[in-house]
Predict the 3D structure of the following.
Amino acid sequence: MKLTTAVFAAGAAVSLATTVVGAARLRQDARHQAERNEATLAGNQIDWLAQVSTSPDLAEIWKPEGMETEEYMRLMSANRLLCTLSLRDRLGFVPKGHLPFFAAWIMKSEVSRRYWKHFGDLRAQEAEGDERAEHFTRVLARAAEDAPHAHPAAA
């Protein structure tokens, strides 16, 4: 192999390696930006839930027809906790296999089960097409079904 061919081949290899590393870096940057966007949007939602769960005037505006304001505020407080867990899960801060444990812990609360009974179907509709959200919703639904005191004991 001539020296010029060897230099050309080495240059091509370096260029290819640089391109591969650059493409990987661009994918990583895009993933990180998507995570930042998701965290920002979830933070906005969690902030709004904090406001609606503590402000009777705001809750009155947004509550479903026929629901008491105080009950809506309690349910939105439970939703806030679920949204926080969802964000932690989506960002990878819930260790693999631990989501059912956290979901069961949340569903031990009567208000969380009432929230799920009232809004679980809506959450399932929102999750459609997003594998991770669908999995999260299935885990929560199972935890709500399996929760102690979810069904009154037979007399």
Summary: The CA atoms of residues 33 and 39 lie 10 Å apart.
